[in-house]
Specification:
Layout (H helix, E strand, L loop, with lengths): L2 E11 L8 E17 L3 E8 L11 H10 L7 E7 L10 H16 L6 H16 L7 H6 L2 E7 L2 E6 L5 E8 L5 H6 L7 H20 L2 H7 L6 H4 L6 H10 L4 E4 L6 E6 L1 H17 L4 E7 L6 E5 L1
Parallel strand pairs: 3-4
Antiparallel strand pairs: 1-2, 1-11, 2-4, 2-5, 5-6, 7-9, 7-10, 8-9
Helix pairs in contact: 1-2, 1-3, 2-3, 6-7, 9-10
This protein binds L-homoserine.
The site of L-homoserine has 12 residues, from helix 5.
């Protein structure tokens, strides 16, 4: 195989209670990338469409992730990467993660799979580090593994893929403002009270248990965040109204997608997810704020191969 074309999906990180540890992979929103072998050693980004991003390897998240992988293997050839961005930067649905994960997935495939999907996470995290200053794995893990994922530990890295029911759909509304992850992280407090921690880890456990046991009520009441959401939500126009509307329309729960400004809701079944989408749009229509809306089933496979040569 000399060339691979892939679909690299958008992801929702945090899922309210699981800041930096929980994430889920979306199905119909994502970038396309082409990775091909080249006789010239190293990594070159040869084309970027759909976004104004640096072509220089060391300044591009996919380039940095690719270089991290290549530090651990010996090859006498190199790689070219083409990126066709559909996920907007600063949208909160894992734009940098899609590029980072896609690059290492493509190179790993062209090398004959020396690494497992879980092993690729640490390379893709280097792209996240370049993008936001923090090597968080809660977007790249679901992009690479599919479904819902939990980062049980960062040191050593321990990623768990969580079994989940097939009826869950995500609704994501993206108000057309850009919120940099680094900025959305800089406003956070470095210390929390024991009381908040107890609430938060109770909900993380509840969400994971609800996913495994297909207990939708439990999933819904666990989608709660009293540490990060109260601080970040003030940066997102109409957040409280969108969240309330989602619940009123039957969503299991709702919160900030990743570091925002996108807002997500999880619902049982597509019909409810569509109703939630409709109602969310009405809120932004009323305040005249442009947005993009997505309804997606959960993508259990992660990155998909579109073609190979
Ligand atoms: N966990 C990260 C954050 C996700 O919330 O900053 C960024 O997409």
């Amino acid at each position: 195989m000399n060339e691979i074309k892939i679909f690299s999906p958008a992801t929702i990180a945090n899922l309210s209670c699981g800041f930096d540890v929980l994430g889920v992979c979306l199905d119909n929103i994502g970038d396309e990338m082409v990775v091909r072998k080249s006789s010239q050693r190293g990594v070159r980004i040869t084309r970027i469409e759909g976004a104004d991003l640096p072509l220089e390897t060391e300044r591009n998240v996919s380039g940095v992730a690719a270089l991290a992988l290549l530090e651990e293997v010996d090859t006498d050839f190199g790689f070219e990467i083409e990126i066709y961005k559909k996920i907007k930067a600063g949208s909160g649905i894992g734009s940098s993660a899609a590029s980072s994960a896609g690059a290492v997935f493509g190179i790993n495939a062209l090398l004959g799979h020396p690494f497992s999907a879980k092993e690729l996470v640490k390379f893709a995290m280097q792209g996240e580090k370049l993008a936001s200053g923090s090597a968080h794995a809660d977007n790249v893990a679901p992009a690479l593994l599919g479904g819902f994922t939990l980062v049980r530990s960062y040191d050593p890295l321990d990623i768990i893929k969580i079994e989940s029911p097939s009826e869950i759909y995500a609704t994501v509304i993206h108000p057309q403002i850009e919120l940099k992850t680094s900025d959305a992280r800089s406003v956070l407090k470095q210390h929390i009270t024991l009381k908040s921690a107890i609430t938060q880890w109770g909900n993380v456990g509840g969400l994971v248990a609800g996913l495994y046991t297909h207990d939708y009520e439990l999933i819904g009441r666990s989608l709660h965040d009293e540490i990060v959401e109260p601080i970040r939500s003030v940066l997102i126009p109409g957040f409280d109204r969108i969240k309330k509307t989602a619940k009123d329309q039957g969503a299991l729960g709702s919160g900030i997608s990743g570091s925002g400004p996108s807002i997500f809701a999880l619902s049982r079944g597509k019909e409810t997810a569509d109703k939630v989408a409709h109602a969310m749009c009405a809120v932004y229509d009323e305040i005249n704020l442009p947005y993009e809306i997505h309804v997606s089933k959960i993508n259990d496979d992660g990155i998909k191969i579109l073609s190979t040569q």
